[in-house]
TrEMBL record:
Annotated protein name in UniProt: Na(+)/H(+) antiporter NhaA
Entry keywords, A to Z: Antiport, Cell membrane, Ion transport, Membrane, Sodium, Sodium transport, Transmembrane, Transmembrane helix, Transport
Reaction equations catalysed: Na(+)(in) + 2 H(+)(out) = Na(+)(out) + 2 H(+)(in)
GO molecular function, one term: sodium:proton antiporter activity
HAMAP family on file: NhaA (MF_01844)
């Protein structure tokens, strides 16, 4: 009932709405970039904001990908921590099955990419097809798989959360260069203070609120969060890691309330704005044969690599932990594996990071991510619909007095 009430108050909490907005924003970005106003919009994205007194300089496009997206990663980190502490990943036994499937969904796409780009200088793009867009995946499942059992959604959630953890580690270790440890130390102090202040907040209660107002503490946390982001940005570590660190250190109840407050903004504004800016790509007027190997590697590795990798990993996990609750049979693994191929948000970010020194390859990689995710969307919609029909048929057969369907 609470979830239904939340959706009535804000449609931006809906997984379906979030997925639709992401897709719509990406399409609009791609269209705008290839119209007469495209050059002006691209120039606007290159505009810089600078505060020389503190040595701060950032373009609008990086303000979106490094700044706004840090809020998205904060939400991811809070939800990941919750799953690790009290959720579906709070024990080795629970985490083992989706972890093996997630590992397959990382290794196989990366291997396909590396094989297809062998002999070139494009190997840095291997993380691009390893990501799964959890918002999109859950949105497709909600639209086409309403009859699917809860265990499928739980498995997908756990796999996507682990996939996000892998993406966070990849960003932290592979896309960080020239770290300045003085700034890292300042960030650590701000992040620690943020976590400490969050523990001074109390559960909502009229008596508590009368006794000690909460807004000064919240204001302090916001300032500390912004300072932590600034320090991480200046350190050379990708700034979205600040959002991850803040999400891990915030106290559990304030973290949950923060996610509840930020989720509509993330779904309705932050992610669509990032999708729009990332999709601002001028489609090159060249024959397909002239695209770089990175384009074809991403296009194949996202939908095919994820489908094969997650399915294989899930089957290996099921054979190792035979009979353990949470294991999925292969017909239920296929929808999860197909949904895993929708890389979108995190894949677009990985693409920008991997090819930051090669603008033309960034554009081709963006097109490949959009097309590869598009293929995965179509395939997953078909597979999820096929499996959902199976469960609807089962439900009808179990309901006494229900007439058999024309389809049998």
């Amino acid at each position: 009932m609470q979830h239904t009430d939340d959706l009535r108050r804000s449609p931006f909490r809906s997984e379906r709405v979030a997925a639709l907005l992401l897709l719509l924003a990406a399409v609009i970005g791609l269209v705008v970039a290839n119209t007469a106003v495209g050059p002006a919009v691209l120039d606007l994205m290159d505009e810089h904001f600078a505060v020389p007194a503190i040595g701060f300089d950032i373009s609008l496009s990086h303000l979106i990908s490094d700044g706004l997206l840090a809020v998205f990663f904060f939400i991811v980190a809070v939800e990941l921590r919750r799953e690790l502490v009290i959720g579906e990943l709070n024990s080795l036994a629970k985490a083992s099955l989706p972890a093996i499937a997630a590992l397959g969904g990382v290794v196989v796409p990366a291997a396909i990419y590396l094989v297809m780009t062998a002999g070139t200088d494009l190997a840095a793009g291997w993380p691009i097809p390893t990501a799964t867009d959890i918002a999109f995946a859950l949105g497709i499942l909600a639209v086409f798989g309403s009859a699917m059992p809860t265990r499928v959604r739980v498995f997908l959630m756990a796999l996507a959360v682990l996939d996000d953890l892998v993406a966070i580690l990849i960003i932290a270790f592979f896309f960080t260069a020239g770290v300045q440890f003085a700034w890292i130390g300042a960030a650590a102090i701000a992040i620690t203070a943020f976590g400490a202040v969050s523990r001074l907040l109390r559960p909502r209660s009229p008596w508590v609120l009368r006794r000690r107002p909460q807004w000064p503490l919240i204001a302090v946390m916001i300032v500390l969060g912004v300072l932590a982001w600034f320090f991480v940005y200046q350190s050379g570590v990708h700034a979205t890691i600040a959002g991850v660190a803040l999400g891990f250190v915030i106290a559990r109840r304030p973290g949950g309330r923060s996610v509840h407050a930020l989720e509509p903004w993330s779904n309705g504004l932050i992610l669509p704005v990032f999708a729009f800016s990332a999709a601002l790509v001028v489609i090159p007027a060249v024959a397909p044969a002239q695209f770089s190997p990175a384009f074809w590697a991403i296009l194949v590795a996202l939908p095919v690599g994820k489908l094969v990798g997650i399915t294989a990993g899930g089957l290996i996990g099921a054979s190792i932990f035979r009979g353990r609750p949470g294991a999925l049979r292969w017909p239920d693994l296929l929808p999860v594996a197909a949904l895993g191929g929708v890389g979108f948000t995190v894949s677009l970010l990985m693409n920008e990071l991997a090819f930051s020194e090669h603008p033309l390859v960034v554009d081709e990689g963006t097109l490949a991510v959009l097309l590869g995710s598009g293929v995965a969307i179509v395939v997953s919609a078909c597979v999820v619909s096929w499996r959902a029909r199976h469960y609807r048929r089962q439900a009808r057969e179990r309901t006494p007095g229900t007439a058999p369907s024309a389809a049998g």
